[in-house]
């Protein structure tokens, strides 16, 4: 299962976001997202905070974190810190601010804070669920994720990733803790029962894509949709990811219903 399948579950997003803050090419959390989640599901309508309003042309807005408490939520007795929330929120805000510059719409800070908080809650629920189910994240698993994260961020080594993380004021220990948690989440989501797309579903998916095909190509010529067999593998991968997303979202919703969650934001 793709590590970016739920872009709102942003542990990996934070890691990759930090990776992009170094000298590496500025790719999003999903190598483009940001997926993201991504993929960005955050609304860009409404009024932002006093510090989040667009400044002079070319100047990036700053997020308002003045109202973030020391503990933003408790999930089954586990506290979620305001410090970690701020890191996540600032990362998401930066991505949304870049999008808002292109769209001309202000970032809705209240909505983004709510989404960031729900991301943290979902992460904690999945981590607890993974541990309860007996999943473990070994050192090799953590190192593999860090190597993938560094590569996706355009870095040559994990050491470069650690340096970029430290330049953002976060320690190597925290980086590895985040990676450990992300491995647990990935393992739990990969264990979800997801049916493979049927031939009928793939045909329907292809027909929908064909119907949405632009009538003209870039040169004004009629755009041609490849034959089904030519794109079957790609369609199967996309539809499988879609099913995985839906299964993961449903699982988190089930965990949320049974959890003791108290928020303070």
From TrEMBL:
Residue stretches of biased makeup (Polar residues): 238-247
UniProt feature, compositional bias: Low complexity: 208-217
MF terms in GO: peptidyl-prolyl cis-trans isomerase activity
Claim: Isomerase is one of the keywords in the record: yes
EC number(s) reported in the record: 5.2.1.8
Superkingdom classification of source: Bacteria
Alphabetically ordered keywords of this record: Isomerase, Signal
Positions with biased composition (Acidic residues): 24-67, 192-202, 218-237, 255-265
Signal sequence segment: 1-19
Top-tier EC class: isomerase
Region (Disordered): 20-79, 187-265
Record protein name field: Peptidyl-prolyl cis-trans isomerase SurA
């Amino acid at each position: 299962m793709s590590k970016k399948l739920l872009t709102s579950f942003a542990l990996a997003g934070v890691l990759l976001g930090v990776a992009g803050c170094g000298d590496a090419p500025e790719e999003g959390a999903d190598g483009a997202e940001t997926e993201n989640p991504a993929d960005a599901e955050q609304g860009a309508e409404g009024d932002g905070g006093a510090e989040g309003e667009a400044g002079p042309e070319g100047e990036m807005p700053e997020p308002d974190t003045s109202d973030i408490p020391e503990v933003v939520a408790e999930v089954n007795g586990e506290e979620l810190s305001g410090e970690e929330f701020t890191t996540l929120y600032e990362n998401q805000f930066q991505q949304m601010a870049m999008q808002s510059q292109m769209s001309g719409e202000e970032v809705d800070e209240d909505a983004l804070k709510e989404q960031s908080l729900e991301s943290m809650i979902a992460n904690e629920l999945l981590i607890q669920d993974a541990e309860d189910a007996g999943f473990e994240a070994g050192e090799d698993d953590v190192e593999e994720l860090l190597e993938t994260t560094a590569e996706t961020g355009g870095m040559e080594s994990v050491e470069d990733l650690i340096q970029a993380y430290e330049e953002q004021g976060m320690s190597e220990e925290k980086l590895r803790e985040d990676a450990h948690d992300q491995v647990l989440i990935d393992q739990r989501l990969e264990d979800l029962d997801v049916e493979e797309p049927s031939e009928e579903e793939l045909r329907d998916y292809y027909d929908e894509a064909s119907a949405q095909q632009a009538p003209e190509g870039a040169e004004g010529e009629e755009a041609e949709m490849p034959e089904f067999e030519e794109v079957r593998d790609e369609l199967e991968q996309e539809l499988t990811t879609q099913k995985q997303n839906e299964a993961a979202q449903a699982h988190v919703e089930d965990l949320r219903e049974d959890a003791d969650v108290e928020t303070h934001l």
